[in-house]
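The following record pairs a protein chain with its ligand, zinc ion.
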Amino acid sequence: MRWKGRRVSDNVEDRRGGGGAKAGGISIIGLIVAFVAWKFFGVDPQQAYQATKQVTSSGATQGAAPANLTAEQKEVSDFVGTILADTEDTWTPILKAKGVQYVSPKLVMFSGAIQSGCGAAQSAMGPFYCPADQKVYIDTQFFKDMRQQMGISGEQNQTELSARDEAGDFAQAYVIAHEVGHHIQNILGISGQVQQQRQRVSEAQGNQLSVHLELQADCLAGVWANSTHQRTQFLEQGDIEEAMDAAEKIGDDFLQKKARGYAVPDSFTHGTSQQRMQWFNTGLKSGDIDRCDTFN
Ligand SMILES: [Zn+2]
């Protein structure tokens, strides 16, 4: 995908540890935790925290932006800021047409551990959106894990593509757009309604509602891709496949099979790979938020 040279959002808070953030060794446990953490993609960080206790914390930082960014760290923040700006340029006019003034979420980049409005967040939790402080949290190590451990990468045309392209940049952008999708659901009151409904239904029905919420966030990510491509022609050959590949790898059925050797439909919270791909495509092809009604 093309992303350089566009506007970079100033709604990014860089709270990574300064210069050469500690990456930490990747253990087998860490790998399993990373897979499990994918499930929490946008879900209650407290739960994810419980699941990732064994991950060692490193350099929790508050507030201050790191002073000496490496070239790679700078590249990551430019990338994240550009994708966030793309979401702003997508949702501002779409929501305006619905009479809603869009206020972008802040996007917090961190490394190691951080305190969020939804509790403590730790490395390997995976990205999440916290409705309480309206911020998207991304541990940038997770992007590295995505390509190194989950095998999510872009096409491998080494001669033409930059390092980021090889790293599956569109899959990473899709992750950000999905989290911003949860922000859209929050400001439109959809997630609040689902939260209320969940209290009145069985656990299995509650999980089903969560699946609809997740699939809708995928559809909203598709709307972002459609809108951004119309403005910037940013999609390149292989990008959609890359996102589909990512969606496949983060479908709950895939994760559950990996983790336990079989799938248990009632405990799905993100939907099957097939469902995720289908709803992302619905948003992508239509570019229409009204087509993202995953609840009916
Ligand atoms: Zn989600």
